[in-house]
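Researcher: Go.
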Amino acid sequence: MNTYNHRIAFTLYEQMLITSVTLPIEMLRAGEAFARRHLGNEFIPLEIAWLSETGETVHSSMGVPFTAHTSFSALSDFDYIVIPSIWRNPRPVLRKNTSLVANLAQARRTGATLIGVGTGVCFLAESGILNGHSATTHWHYAEQFKRSYPLVALRPDYFITQSDRLYTVASLNALADIIVHFIDQFYGQEAANHVQQNFSHEVRKPYEEQRYLEGAVDRHSDEQIASIQFWLRNNSADEITFPDVAAQFGMSYRTFNRRFKAATGQTAANYLQTVRVRQVTELLASTNLSIQEIALACGFNSQGQLTRVFKSTMNQTPSQYRQVVRKKLFS
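Model: Structure:
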Protein backbone atom coordinates (compact mmCIF):
# COMPACT_ATOMS: atom_id res chain seq x y z
CA MET A 1 0.00 0.00 0.00
CA ASN A 2 1.15 3.53 -0.80
CA THR A 3 1.89 5.41 2.44
CA TYR A 4 2.03 8.86 0.80
CA ASN A 5 -1.44 8.97 -0.74
CA HIS A 6 -4.92 7.79 0.03
CA ARG A 7 -5.35 5.52 -3.01
CA ILE A 8 -9.00 5.08 -4.01
CA ALA A 9 -10.31 3.00 -6.93
CA PHE A 10 -13.77 3.07 -8.49
CA THR A 11 -14.81 0.05 -10.53
CA LEU A 12 -16.57 0.84 -13.81
CA TYR A 13 -19.02 -1.17 -15.88
CA GLU A 14 -21.95 -0.57 -18.19
CA GLN A 15 -25.29 -0.07 -16.41
CA MET A 16 -23.57 1.43 -13.37
CA LEU A 17 -25.36 4.19 -11.49
CA ILE A 18 -23.01 7.01 -12.44
CA THR A 19 -23.90 9.17 -9.41
CA SER A 20 -22.46 6.43 -7.19
CA VAL A 21 -19.14 7.31 -8.88
CA THR A 22 -19.37 11.04 -9.47
CA LEU A 23 -20.91 12.11 -6.14
CA PRO A 24 -18.32 10.43 -3.88
CA ILE A 25 -15.48 11.70 -6.07
CA GLU A 26 -16.76 15.27 -5.87
CA MET A 27 -17.15 14.97 -2.09
CA LEU A 28 -13.69 13.47 -1.69
CA ARG A 29 -12.11 16.22 -3.80
CA ALA A 30 -13.94 18.87 -1.75
CA GLY A 31 -12.55 17.36 1.44
CA GLU A 32 -9.09 17.16 -0.08
CA ALA A 33 -9.22 20.82 -1.16
CA PHE A 34 -10.25 21.90 2.34
CA ALA A 35 -7.49 19.83 3.92
CA ARG A 36 -4.89 21.18 1.50
CA ARG A 37 -5.66 24.69 2.75
CA HIS A 38 -5.77 23.85 6.46
CA LEU A 39 -3.50 20.90 7.29
CA GLY A 40 -0.14 22.18 6.09
CA ASN A 41 2.60 19.56 6.24
CA GLU A 42 0.16 16.94 7.57
CA PHE A 43 -1.83 16.99 4.32
CA ILE A 44 -1.94 13.69 2.40
CA PRO A 45 -3.32 13.91 -1.18
CA LEU A 46 -5.83 11.59 -2.76
CA GLU A 47 -5.04 9.39 -5.70
CA ILE A 48 -8.32 8.46 -7.39
CA ALA A 49 -8.53 6.06 -10.33
CA TRP A 50 -11.22 4.44 -12.47
CA LEU A 51 -10.78 0.77 -13.35
CA SER A 52 -12.63 -1.36 -15.87
CA GLU A 53 -12.62 -5.01 -16.98
CA THR A 54 -10.20 -4.41 -19.88
CA GLY A 55 -8.80 -1.02 -18.89
CA GLU A 56 -10.72 0.58 -21.75
CA THR A 57 -13.35 3.34 -21.72
CA VAL A 58 -16.75 2.39 -20.32
CA HIS A 59 -19.89 3.96 -21.80
CA SER A 60 -22.55 4.27 -19.13
CA SER A 61 -26.23 3.68 -19.78
CA MET A 62 -26.70 7.46 -19.66
CA GLY A 63 -24.32 7.86 -22.60
CA VAL A 64 -21.51 9.37 -20.51
CA PRO A 65 -18.08 7.84 -21.27
CA PHE A 66 -15.67 7.08 -18.43
CA THR A 67 -12.03 6.70 -19.42
CA ALA A 68 -10.48 3.98 -17.24
CA HIS A 69 -6.95 4.39 -15.95
CA THR A 70 -6.27 0.65 -15.90
CA SER A 71 -7.94 -2.75 -15.54
CA PHE A 72 -9.36 -4.59 -12.52
CA SER A 73 -6.10 -6.52 -12.23
CA ALA A 74 -4.60 -3.44 -10.49
CA LEU A 75 -7.17 -3.35 -7.68
CA SER A 76 -4.71 -4.73 -5.12
CA ASP A 77 -2.66 -1.53 -5.52
CA PHE A 78 -5.39 0.54 -3.89
CA ASP A 79 -6.29 1.22 -0.26
CA TYR A 80 -10.01 1.79 -0.86
CA ILE A 81 -12.26 0.34 -3.55
CA VAL A 82 -15.77 1.57 -4.30
CA ILE A 83 -18.04 -0.82 -6.23
CA PRO A 84 -20.90 1.29 -7.69
CA SER A 85 -24.54 0.32 -7.85
CA ILE A 86 -26.06 -1.21 -10.99
CA TRP A 87 -29.18 -0.21 -12.87
CA ARG A 88 -31.89 -2.88 -13.01
CA ASN A 89 -30.91 -6.56 -12.97
CA PRO A 90 -27.24 -6.93 -11.91
CA ARG A 91 -26.82 -10.47 -13.32
CA PRO A 92 -25.81 -9.46 -16.89
CA VAL A 93 -23.27 -6.99 -15.51
CA LEU A 94 -21.79 -9.68 -13.28
CA ARG A 95 -21.40 -12.00 -16.27
CA LYS A 96 -19.62 -9.33 -18.36
CA ASN A 97 -17.11 -8.42 -15.62
CA THR A 98 -15.87 -11.82 -14.50
CA SER A 99 -12.37 -10.72 -13.49
CA LEU A 100 -13.74 -8.21 -10.97
CA VAL A 101 -14.89 -10.93 -8.58
CA ALA A 102 -11.45 -12.58 -8.31
CA ASN A 103 -9.62 -9.26 -8.14
CA LEU A 104 -11.83 -7.98 -5.33
CA ALA A 105 -11.06 -11.13 -3.34
CA GLN A 106 -7.34 -10.60 -3.92
CA ALA A 107 -7.56 -6.93 -2.93
CA ARG A 108 -9.34 -7.95 0.25
CA ARG A 109 -6.50 -10.36 1.09
CA THR A 110 -3.90 -7.63 0.57
CA GLY A 111 -5.64 -5.25 2.98
CA ALA A 112 -7.91 -3.04 0.88
CA THR A 113 -11.07 -1.52 2.31
CA LEU A 114 -14.07 -2.43 0.12
CA ILE A 115 -17.28 -0.39 -0.20
CA GLY A 116 -20.15 -2.03 -2.08
CA VAL A 117 -23.01 0.24 -3.14
CA GLY A 118 -26.58 -0.95 -3.74
CA THR A 119 -26.68 -3.86 -6.16
CA GLY A 120 -22.92 -3.48 -6.66
CA VAL A 121 -22.76 -5.45 -3.40
CA CYS A 122 -23.48 -8.51 -5.59
CA PHE A 123 -19.86 -8.44 -6.79
CA LEU A 124 -18.70 -8.82 -3.18
CA ALA A 125 -21.21 -11.61 -2.59
CA GLU A 126 -20.12 -13.43 -5.77
CA SER A 127 -16.53 -13.44 -4.54
CA GLY A 128 -17.50 -15.15 -1.27
CA ILE A 129 -16.12 -12.21 0.71
CA LEU A 130 -19.49 -11.65 2.38
CA ASN A 131 -20.11 -15.26 3.40
CA GLY A 132 -20.79 -15.30 7.12
CA HIS A 133 -20.87 -11.49 7.26
CA SER A 134 -23.66 -8.93 7.41
CA ALA A 135 -24.57 -6.90 4.35
CA THR A 136 -27.26 -4.68 2.90
CA THR A 137 -28.31 -3.81 -0.64
CA HIS A 138 -30.95 -1.82 -2.52
CA TRP A 139 -34.39 -2.64 -1.12
CA HIS A 140 -35.78 -3.57 -4.55
CA TYR A 141 -33.25 -6.43 -4.91
CA ALA A 142 -33.25 -7.64 -1.31
CA GLU A 143 -35.39 -10.77 -1.78
CA GLN A 144 -33.46 -11.90 -4.86
CA PHE A 145 -30.20 -11.25 -2.99
CA LYS A 146 -31.32 -13.54 -0.16
CA ARG A 147 -32.07 -16.33 -2.63
CA SER A 148 -28.84 -15.89 -4.58
CA TYR A 149 -26.52 -15.54 -1.58
CA PRO A 150 -27.95 -17.54 1.34
CA LEU A 151 -24.60 -17.55 3.19
CA VAL A 152 -24.69 -13.75 3.53
CA ALA A 153 -26.50 -12.31 6.57
CA LEU A 154 -28.59 -9.72 4.73
CA ARG A 155 -29.81 -6.88 6.94
CA PRO A 156 -32.24 -4.90 4.74
CA ASP A 157 -33.33 -2.70 7.65
CA TYR A 158 -29.89 -1.06 7.72
CA PHE A 159 -28.64 1.40 5.14
CA ILE A 160 -25.00 0.71 6.10
CA THR A 161 -23.19 -2.36 7.39
CA GLN A 162 -19.56 -2.63 8.42
CA SER A 163 -17.46 -5.68 9.12
CA ASP A 164 -13.88 -4.56 9.71
CA ARG A 165 -12.71 -3.18 6.32
CA LEU A 166 -15.83 -4.36 4.49
CA TYR A 167 -18.69 -1.89 3.99
CA THR A 168 -22.02 -2.20 2.20
CA VAL A 169 -24.54 0.58 1.64
CA ALA A 170 -28.13 0.44 0.41
CA SER A 171 -28.56 3.89 -1.11
CA LEU A 172 -26.81 6.91 -2.56
CA ASN A 173 -27.56 8.95 0.56
CA ALA A 174 -25.95 6.26 2.71
CA LEU A 175 -22.90 6.33 0.42
CA ALA A 176 -22.64 10.08 1.00
CA ASP A 177 -22.67 9.46 4.76
CA ILE A 178 -19.84 6.93 4.42
CA ILE A 179 -17.79 9.34 2.32
CA VAL A 180 -18.15 11.99 5.04
CA HIS A 181 -17.00 9.32 7.51
CA PHE A 182 -13.89 8.59 5.43
CA ILE A 183 -13.10 12.29 5.00
CA ASP A 184 -13.20 12.54 8.80
CA GLN A 185 -10.71 9.66 8.98
CA PHE A 186 -8.46 11.14 6.29
CA TYR A 187 -8.55 14.83 7.19
CA GLY A 188 -10.41 15.32 10.50
CA GLN A 189 -13.80 16.48 11.68
CA GLU A 190 -13.49 20.04 10.41
CA ALA A 191 -13.01 18.85 6.83
CA ALA A 192 -15.86 16.35 7.21
CA ASN A 193 -18.19 19.06 8.55
CA HIS A 194 -17.23 21.33 5.65
CA VAL A 195 -18.11 18.69 3.06
CA GLN A 196 -21.29 17.66 4.85
CA GLN A 197 -22.54 21.24 5.04
CA ASN A 198 -21.84 21.85 1.36
CA PHE A 199 -23.27 18.61 0.00
CA SER A 200 -25.94 17.66 2.54
CA HIS A 201 -27.29 20.60 4.50
CA GLU A 202 -29.98 18.58 6.21
CA VAL A 203 -27.28 16.59 8.08
CA ARG A 204 -28.65 13.09 8.41
CA LYS A 205 -27.70 10.88 11.34
CA PRO A 206 -23.92 10.41 11.48
CA TYR A 207 -22.43 7.27 10.00
CA GLU A 208 -21.60 5.81 13.43
CA GLU A 209 -25.26 5.99 14.54
CA GLN A 210 -26.89 4.36 11.53
CA ARG A 211 -24.59 1.56 10.45
CA TYR A 212 -24.72 -2.05 11.59
CA LEU A 213 -21.21 -2.72 12.90
CA GLU A 214 -20.56 -6.43 12.98
CA GLY A 215 -19.06 -7.84 16.15
CA ALA A 216 -18.42 -4.53 17.89
CA VAL A 217 -19.71 -2.64 20.90
CA ASP A 218 -19.76 1.09 20.17
CA ARG A 219 -16.64 0.65 17.93
CA HIS A 220 -14.49 -0.79 20.73
CA SER A 221 -14.41 -3.76 23.09
CA ASP A 222 -14.60 -2.02 26.47
CA GLU A 223 -18.19 -2.82 27.40
CA GLN A 224 -18.17 -0.68 30.54
CA ILE A 225 -17.07 2.40 28.58
CA ALA A 226 -19.73 1.58 25.96
CA SER A 227 -22.29 1.59 28.79
CA ILE A 228 -20.99 4.97 29.94
CA GLN A 229 -21.29 6.34 26.40
CA PHE A 230 -24.89 5.11 26.26
CA TRP A 231 -25.58 6.77 29.63
CA LEU A 232 -24.02 10.05 28.49
CA ARG A 233 -26.12 10.10 25.32
CA ASN A 234 -29.29 9.59 27.32
CA ASN A 235 -28.45 12.11 30.05
CA SER A 236 -26.62 14.74 28.01
CA ALA A 237 -29.16 17.45 28.87
CA ASP A 238 -28.31 17.19 32.57
CA GLU A 239 -25.44 18.84 34.40
CA ILE A 240 -22.73 16.18 34.35
CA THR A 241 -19.56 15.93 36.42
CA PHE A 242 -17.24 13.19 35.29
CA PRO A 243 -15.91 12.25 38.76
CA ASP A 244 -19.53 11.47 39.67
CA VAL A 245 -19.97 9.44 36.48
CA ALA A 246 -16.82 7.47 37.27
CA ALA A 247 -18.06 6.74 40.80
CA GLN A 248 -21.48 5.74 39.47
CA PHE A 249 -19.81 3.10 37.29
CA GLY A 250 -17.51 1.88 40.04
CA MET A 251 -14.13 3.20 38.94
CA SER A 252 -11.72 5.92 40.00
CA TYR A 253 -11.72 9.19 38.07
CA ARG A 254 -8.17 8.52 36.88
CA THR A 255 -9.10 5.05 35.60
CA PHE A 256 -12.23 6.45 33.99
CA ASN A 257 -10.23 9.05 32.03
CA ARG A 258 -7.60 6.55 30.95
CA ARG A 259 -10.05 3.88 29.81
CA PHE A 260 -12.39 6.32 28.06
CA LYS A 261 -9.54 7.81 26.03
CA ALA A 262 -8.09 4.39 25.22
CA ALA A 263 -11.45 3.02 24.07
CA THR A 264 -12.81 5.99 22.12
CA GLY A 265 -9.76 8.00 21.12
CA GLN A 266 -11.11 11.14 22.80
CA THR A 267 -11.78 12.52 26.26
CA ALA A 268 -15.17 12.10 27.89
CA ALA A 269 -15.62 15.88 27.77
CA ASN A 270 -15.03 15.97 24.02
CA TYR A 271 -17.37 13.03 23.51
CA LEU A 272 -20.15 14.69 25.51
CA GLN A 273 -19.66 17.95 23.64
CA THR A 274 -19.98 16.10 20.31
CA VAL A 275 -23.18 14.43 21.49
CA ARG A 276 -24.66 17.75 22.59
CA VAL A 277 -23.74 19.57 19.36
CA ARG A 278 -25.29 16.73 17.35
CA GLN A 279 -28.53 17.10 19.32
CA VAL A 280 -28.44 20.84 18.73
CA THR A 281 -28.20 20.37 14.96
CA GLU A 282 -31.24 18.10 15.01
CA LEU A 283 -33.32 20.59 17.01
CA LEU A 284 -32.21 23.51 14.84
CA ALA A 285 -33.35 21.64 11.75
CA SER A 286 -36.58 20.12 13.03
CA THR A 287 -38.07 22.54 15.60
CA ASN A 288 -38.94 26.21 16.08
CA LEU A 289 -37.40 26.35 19.57
CA SER A 290 -35.31 29.45 20.27
CA ILE A 291 -31.54 29.14 20.47
CA GLN A 292 -31.74 29.70 24.23
CA GLU A 293 -34.33 26.93 24.61
CA ILE A 294 -32.21 24.55 22.53
CA ALA A 295 -29.14 25.41 24.58
CA LEU A 296 -30.85 24.50 27.85
CA ALA A 297 -32.47 21.39 26.34
CA CYS A 298 -29.08 20.07 25.22
CA GLY A 299 -27.09 20.66 28.39
CA PHE A 300 -25.55 24.09 27.76
CA ASN A 301 -25.68 26.77 30.44
CA SER A 302 -26.66 29.58 28.10
CA GLN A 303 -27.13 30.61 24.49
CA GLY A 304 -23.70 32.24 24.62
CA GLN A 305 -21.97 29.04 25.68
CA LEU A 306 -23.78 27.08 22.98
CA THR A 307 -22.84 29.62 20.33
CA ARG A 308 -19.14 29.50 21.28
CA VAL A 309 -19.00 25.70 21.26
CA PHE A 310 -21.12 25.36 18.11
CA LYS A 311 -19.04 27.89 16.16
CA SER A 312 -15.77 26.21 17.15
CA THR A 313 -17.15 22.85 15.97
CA MET A 314 -19.29 23.77 12.96
CA ASN A 315 -17.60 27.00 11.81
CA GLN A 316 -20.87 28.92 11.94
CA THR A 317 -23.32 30.12 14.55
CA PRO A 318 -26.48 28.16 15.42
CA SER A 319 -28.58 30.86 13.72
CA GLN A 320 -26.54 30.65 10.52
CA TYR A 321 -26.77 26.86 10.55
CA ARG A 322 -30.55 26.95 11.04
CA GLN A 323 -30.97 29.44 8.22
CA VAL A 324 -29.10 27.23 5.75
CA VAL A 325 -30.77 24.00 6.86
CA ARG A 326 -34.30 25.37 6.96
CA LYS A 327 -33.94 26.83 3.46
CA LYS A 328 -33.40 23.33 2.16
CA LEU A 329 -35.80 21.45 4.43
CA PHE A 330 -38.79 23.75 4.41
CA SER A 331 -38.61 25.94 1.29
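Model: The radius of gyration is 22 Å.
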